[in-house]
Amino acid sequence: MGKREKSGFWVLAAASIFYPLSWLGKRTYRGAEKIPATGGALLVMNHVSHLDPPNDAVFVHRNRRVPRFMAKDSLFKVPVFGRILAGSGGIPVYRGSTSAADSLKAAHAALREGKLVVIYPEGTITKDPTGWPMRARTGVARLALENDVPVLPAARWGTNDIWNGYSKKFRPFPRKRVWTVVGDPVDLSAYRGQPVTNQVLREVTDLLMTRVRDLLADIRDEPAPAEFYSAGARREAEQ
């Protein structure tokens, strides 16, 4: 086991909150050895519950790295929690504003400084009624293509059985199994060097989320849907 990445007061403060929250589930990890011990890395994950960040932070921290989460800027304004998030290296995402590019700049800088960045490309908890990933935002592709770092797909399942963000049901007992599985780094060599067009960004985003979806299908032991869920497409179909 390698040396733990250097942290600080705010990382320890986050750990004091997140570790107890992660104990709500019986954790099972697979593929953790694929997380690099040092250097920049992009961990691409699905999002099914408000318990995902604590669970994922503990998973990364137990593998001796400090996770840098990309999170909505509003979370940084929450008393105490926002200070912990910022102090532990969180990266605010300013959606729908002129600051949106700045949020990606901060993530680029973190990767180039050798940090491990965790991103939920869907941008929010999936609205798919059965919990599969939604059509994702393309910022993840830009980060993956413009930085020479390992891009690791990962899936997590079971946090939604403890805390369902849409039904508002919180069911900690009996304790549920929470799976976290990391896949092999995604080979993006076919896309590197190409002009970063909207089409390329969409193709790379879908490729990354397909790898995440395949890992989730393995955890759930059931076939994944052929298409990514889109709330807009569903509304059009219902009209």
TrEMBL record:
Superkingdom of source: Bacteria
Transmembrane feature ranges: 7-25
InterPro entries hit by this protein: Plipid/glycerol_acylTrfase (IPR002123)
SUPFAM superfamilies given in the database record: Glycerol-3-phosphate (1)-acyltransferase
Keyword hit for Transmembrane: yes
Keyword field: Acyltransferase, Membrane, Transferase, Transmembrane, Transmembrane helix
Phospholipid/glycerol acyltransferase domain span: 41-159
A Pfam family matched in the record: Acyltransferase
Keyword Repeat: no
GO cellular component: plasma membrane
A GO BP annotation: phosphatidic acid biosynthetic process
MF terms (GO), sorted A to Z: 1-acylglycerol-3-phosphate O-acyltransferase activity
Protein name: 1-acyl-sn-glycerol-3-phosphate acyltransferase
Lineage, broadest ranks: Bacteria, Bacillati, Actinomycetota, Actinomycetes, Pseudonocardiales
